[in-house]
C-alpha cells in the first residue's frame, strides 16, 4: 500500500467518525474537540494496525529496492540508501510512519526478539564497526535479511546462517504493536525524506 493510499484510508476512517458524530452545543465545544481528537487518533491507529497486519507488504516493498546503490546518509533510492535509510524508507512508504534515522535509534524502538523467534518484518542489528547496533537490516524469513551493506555495494540479501553475520549479530526488534503509537499528531504527514538528508547513517564493514 502506498503512502497516498494509506492517507486516503485514514482520512476516510476519520471522516466516517466525524460524519457519525452528532452536533454538540457551542458551550461544550472544548470538550467535544478533545473527544473528537481522541476518536480520530484511535481511528488512525486502527488504520495503521490494518496496514501493518500483513508484514509481507513490508518485505515485498523492500525487495523492490534490491540493487539500489549504497550511499552513506542516503535516504531515497534515487540518491542511494544506507542501512538505516533503507529501513526508514520502506516503513515510510508502506506504513506512513517515520522511524528514527540511525540504526542505534532504531534499536530502541519496538520490543526485543530472540533469534529463534524472528518473523518477517523484524529489524535485525549487527555490530560491524566495533560499535553495538551499528548496522541494521530487515528480516525476510528463512534466515535471510535485506540490507544496504557498505560503500561500493548495493542493497542485497544476506543470510544469518553466514559465519560473519552470526558473529556480528547484535539482536532484533519487532515493531508490531508500536507503530500506531508513532503516528505524528493523528494525521500529520511524515516529514519529507529530502528534508532529513544528511542526518547521518551507518555503514557495515565489508563482509570478508
Q: Could you walk me through the main structural features you see in this protein, from its secondary elements to its overall organization?
A:
By secondary structure, this protein is α+β, with helices and mostly antiparallel strands. It folds into two domains: 3-52; 56-196, endopeptidase domain like (from Nostoc punctiforme) (endopeptidase fold (from Nostoc punctiforme)), CATH 3.90.1720.10. The protein contains six helices and eight strands, in the order H-H-H-E-E-H-H-E-E-E-E-E-H-E. The protein has helices at 3-20, 29-52, 56-63, 83-95, 103-106, 163-168, and strands at residues 75-76, 80-81, 111-113, 123-126, 135-141, 144-147, 156-159, 169-174. The longest helix has 24 residues, at 29-52. Residues 6-29 and 185-200 have low confidence and may be disordered.
Counted beta strands: 8
Q: Percent helix among the residues?
A: 25-40%
Order of H and E elements: HHHEEHHEEEEEHE
CATH class of the largest domain: Alpha Beta
CATH architecture of the largest domain: Alpha-Beta Complex
Rg over CA atoms: 19 Å
Summarize the helices and strands and which ones pair or pack:
Layout: H1 3-20, H2 29-52, H3 56-63, E1 75-76, E2 80-81, H4 83-95, H5 103-106, E3 111-113, E4 123-126, E5 135-141, E6 144-147, E7 156-159, H6 163-168, E8 169-174
Antiparallel strand pairs: 1-2, 3-8, 4-5, 4-8, 5-6, 6-7
Helix pairs in contact: 1-2, 3-4
Gist of the model:
This protein is an alpha+beta fold.
Keywords, please?
single chain, 208 residues, alpha+beta, endopeptidase fold (from Nostoc punctiforme), 2 domains, six-stranded antiparallel sheet, 6 helices, globular
Amino acid at each position: 500500500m502506498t503512502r497516498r493510499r494509506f492517507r486516503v484510508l485514514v482520512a476516510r476512517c476519520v471522516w466516517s467518525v466525524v460524519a457519525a458524530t452528532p452536533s454538540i452545543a457551542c458551550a461544550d465545544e472544548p470538550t467535544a474537540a478533545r473527544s473528537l481528537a481522541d476518536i480520530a487518533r484511535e481511528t488512525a491507529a486502527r488504520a495503521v494496525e490494518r496496514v501493518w497486519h500483513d508484514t509481507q507488504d513490508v518485505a515485498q516493498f523492500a525487495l523492490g529496492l534490491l540493487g539500489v546503490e549504497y550511499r552513506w546518509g542516503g535516504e531515497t533510492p534515487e540518491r542511494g540508501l544506507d542501512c538505516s535509510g533503507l529501513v526508514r524508507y520502506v516503513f515510510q512508504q508502506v506504513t506512513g510512519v517515520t522511524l528514527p534515522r540511525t540504526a542505534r535509534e532504531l534499536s530502541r524502538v519496538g520490543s526485543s526478539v530472540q533469534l529463534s523467534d524472528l518473523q518477517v518484518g523484524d529489524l535485525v542489528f549487527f555490530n560491524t564497526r566495533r560499535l553495538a547496533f551499528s548496522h541494521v537490516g530487515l528480516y525476510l524469513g528463512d534466515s535471510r535479511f535485506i540490507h544496504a551493506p557498505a560503500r561500493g555495494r548495493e542493497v542485497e540479501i544476506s543470510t544469518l546462517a553466514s559465519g560473519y553475520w552470526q558473529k556480528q549479530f547484535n539482536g532484533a526488534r519487532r515493531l508490531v504493536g508500536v507503530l500506531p503509537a508513532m503516528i505524528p499528531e493523528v494525521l500529520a504527514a511524515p516529514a519529507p525524506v529530502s528534508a532529513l538528508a544528511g542526518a547521518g547513517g551507518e555503514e557495515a564493514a565489508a563482509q570478508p
